[in-house]
Design a protein that fits this description.
- The protein has helices at 22-27, 29-42, 46-52, 55-58, 61-81, 96-103, 109-126, 142-153, 181-193, 214-225, 248-258, 265-274, 288-296, 308-317, and strands at 6-10, 89-92, 132-138, 164-171, 174-180, 198-201, 236-237, 279-282, 301-304.
- By secondary structure, the protein is an alpha/beta fold.
- Helix 5 runs parallel beside helix 6.
- The N and C termini lie close together (10 Å).
- The relative contact order is 0.17.
- The model has no long low-confidence stretch (mean pLDDT 95).
């Protein structure tokens, strides 16, 4: 039975860590089985990598993306196995949108694992390593960040200008900017001058969700053309539009656009709340989205199911 006030949310890159899901895998063989299915699709032992590391291997974008998708699908399968109540909405942050679409029945799991590995490769090669940067900016209004990024982008590269864009609207007062290294650094300087509390460089290997990712989008579009998508059985709120889409071909178009467009996470959560959502369950490792969701809407009850305690608490809270 569905809980009319429940949404599941799926994390993106940055939530991966060595040893994740070890405890829950001891209780639920479906976790290992899900990783075995993904390993078979990709040709290497993902579970061994997740448990043994090193962390640097997990952090390679083409590895991170299938690993996190598989972890989320594994936890979703655990939830179904325990007869947990079905959510009425799903949403994922960046890569997590693919996890949401698999769990909604819109994409085949093996297809998705191969597709997100390719997506990681496309994103990595769109901008050579070392040329791009991302930084989280805290304590500045969204519009001010957008304006400063535009101002820096309009400067000549000789003056430190070039591509820098606001790419993740994660919560009020937390926005990620990305682009070429020099413009990102100049934008940080200008943001600090207008009262930015903190600007933290992110340990990523490419400027995700910027216009620089357009070539990656073109390759992803080509890769998706051969895949069958279905209408989602549970609506998925998309990063680009902050609303659901039922048409499989339109979903492909949204995923193409998502790769070089900002992640509108604040708007996604606000949409879910407007639809009566009172509880979110983070279906993946870590608690990144739970923290963001709580900042966006204080009244939300935010749960996580990446370990046995969290799973049991969520099951009893939603029984």
């Amino acid at each position: 039975m569905a809980n009319q006030q429940l949404a599941f949310v799926f994390p993106g890159q940055g939530s991966q860590k060595v040893g994740m899901l070890a405890g829950i895998a001891e209780q639920f063989p479906v976790v290992i089985d899900t990783f075995a299915e993904a390993s078979d699709a990709l040709g290497y032992d993902m579970w061994a990598m997740v448990q043994g590391g090193p962390q640097e291997d997990l952090n390679l974008t083409e590895r991170t993306q299938p690993i996190l998708l598989t972890a989320s699908v594994a936890l979703w399968r655990v939830w179904l196995e325990k007869n947990g109540v079905k959510p009425v909405l799903l949403a994922g942050h960046s890569l997590g949108e693919f996890s949401a679409l698999v769990c909604a029945g819109a994409m085949d799991f093996r297809d998705a694992v191969r597709l997100v590995r390719a997506r990681g490769q496309f994103m990595q090669t769109a901008v050579p390593v070392g040329e791009g940067a991302m930084a989280a900016v805290l304590g500045v209004e969204d519009q001010q960040i957008i304006d400063i990024c535009r101002e820096v982008s309009a400067l000549s590269p000789a003056a430190g200008g070039g591509v820098v864009e606001a790419v993740n609207f994660n919560s009020p007062g937390q926005v990620v900017i990305a682009g070429k290294v020099a413009p990102v650094n100049l934008a940080i300087e200008k943001l600090k001058a207008v009262g930015c509390k903190r600007a933290m460089p992110l340990p990523v290997s490419a400027p995700f969700h910027t216009s620089l990712m357009r070539p990656a989008g073109d390759k992803l579009k080509e890769a998706m053309a051969a895949l069958k998508f279905n209408a989602p059985q549970i609506p998925v709120v998309h990063n680009v539009s902050a609303k659901p889409e039922a048409d499989p071909e339109k979903i492909k178009a949204i995923l193409f656009e998502q790769i070089f467009s900002p992640v509108q996470w604040t708007a996604c959560v606000q949409y879910m709340v407007s639809q009566g959502i009172a509880t979110t369950v983070e279906c993946g490792p870590g608690k990144v989205l739970s923290g963001l969701n709580k900042r966006i809407e204080k009244s939300l009850n935010c749960l996580g199911i990446d370990d046995n305690d969290g799973l049991n608490q969520a099951l009893s809270a939603l029984a």
